[in-house]
Amino acid sequence: MKRQNTKDMSQAVDAYLRWMASAQYSPHTIEFYQWILKHWIEFANASSMALNDLFTPEVFKAFESASRLKSISLIPIRSLARYLYENNQLEAPMQTFHERLPNIYEQYLAHYEDIRNINHTTILRCRNVFLSLHRHLDDDDLSTLTIEKIDGFLKHYNAGYSPVSQRHHRSCVRGLLQYLYCQKVLRRDLSTLLSGPPFYAQAKPPRFLRPAEVEHLFSSLSWERPKDFRCNAMIYLAYTLGLRPMEISLISLDDISFAKKEIRLVNRKNTVPLRLPLPEETLKAIVAHMAHARHQTNLRALFVTFTAPYRPVSRYTVSYDISTCLHKTGISESAYCLRHTYAQNLLEAGASIFQVKEMLGHDRIQTTQRYIHVHTQLMRKALFDETI
Predict the structure, then answer these.
(1) Residue at which a domain ends, from 154, 185, 203
(2) What is the chain's Cα-based Rg?
(3) Model pTM?
(4) What's the angle, vertex CA 90, arms to CA 87 and CA 96, rounded to 5?
(5) 154, 187, 156: which is closest to 171 by C-alpha?
(6) E strands, the chain, where?
(7) Which of 26, 74, 24, 80 lies closest to 51, judged by CA?
(8) Which of 29, 116, 239, 267 is the most buried (most CB within 10 A)?
(9) Does residue 215 share a domain with residue 199?
(10) Greatest distance between any 2 Cα atoms in the chain
């Protein structure tokens, strides 16, 4: 690569990292991207290609091999390419290239993406895990899989990964095992046997908003722009019903009964539908959104994009919009803190842990038990004998 191109690459990376900071990416994410992109600059410096020739599948694979980085860690390079293309510094977007897996893996990935509304990054992570699994099994028939083989693969594959990443990899494999069992490829559901060491980071209580923060948040909401109306309706749904960003993004107009003041939740993580009453303030926020923000379209999704071609918003848009609104009010939390606050309110209202589990749509009671730690009033009563 010519020196001028190397200089251009360094400047492009610096500009991209500054953009990430302005877009409120977490410092941890920016630091991680900076570390990966440093390797990319070194690789570009050692090559003899122009800027536009660097972002190709072939060069990408060469960099992956030369750097010996895990495939999932190369996402920053793709993100940089997208940023450069959108800012007219690349002539064409980076092409996507995937080594094709055997049909059963590809069928599962298509099924997983369809039913869970999963983003590209998650699918890429699963694809990389399955590629390594397929190579590890060395063309063994999947019907002969045993939990010992799976444990042996994960022990080898997870070496060097953080506990969080290890948990994600187990989740990918667990989903595949469930699918193989449902497709009668496996005679036994091995997913129930797949477990990792205790994930102690989960012992940290979920973050929820104090009453004063809740009051400040809702008193600070703006009702001027269409984006305000849409975001505010999302916030009310998250706070008063404890909905995940994914569940909010999938709400259809057909799910809402304005006459009965009810909402039907069909697309839940635990696949158990639920019908809930809509609080008055939440219903008003939805109506205001439909009157002042939602474009006239044949789409039945409650929340759609503002620009054509109109399409349902993604869960990442929901999460980003809510988090941005929280940050503007001085609350440095993610969209999930509203869901955690909903759980806290249920506990303080006297709901049992099993009732909270059903309301939150958890798959496992162990997930719900984390919320016991946030019941601060009962903790104070037990520890300090305070009158509640």
Answers:
(1) 203
(2) 24
(3) 0.54
(4) 110
(5) 154
(6) 256-257, 262-265, 274-277
(7) 80
(8) 239
(9) no
(10) 73
pLDDT digits (tens, 9 = 90+) for 209-260: 889 999 999 999 999 999 999 999 999 999 999 999 989 999 999 999 999 9
Mapping DSSP onto H, E and C, the string for 273-297 reads CEEEECCHHHHHHHHHHHHHCCCCC
Q: Is residue 97 part of a domain?
A: no
Tokens (6 digits) for 65:
């091999």
Domain limits for position 58? 3-86
265: helix, strand or coil: strand
SS3 assignment, position 157: helix
Residues 120 and 61 both lie in one domain:
no
Spatial distance between the Cα atoms of 359 and 5, rounded to a whole number of angstroms: 55
Other C-beta atoms closer than 10 Å to the C-beta of 145 total 20
Structural domain tally of the chain? 3
End-to-end alpha carbon distance in the chain: 69
CA 248, CA 184: separation in Å to the nearest integer? 34
Task: Tell me, yes or no, whether 271 and 345 share the same domain.
Answer: yes
**pLDDT tens digits, residue range 78-128?**
888 888 888 888 777 666 556 678 889 989 988 887 766 566 677 888 888
Tokens linked to 50: 């122009």
DSSP of 64-130, one letter per residue? HHHHT--GGGGHHHHHHHHHHHHTTSSSSPPPP--PPPPHHHHHHHHHHHHHHT--HHHHHHHHHHH
Residue keyed to tokens 């060469």: 62
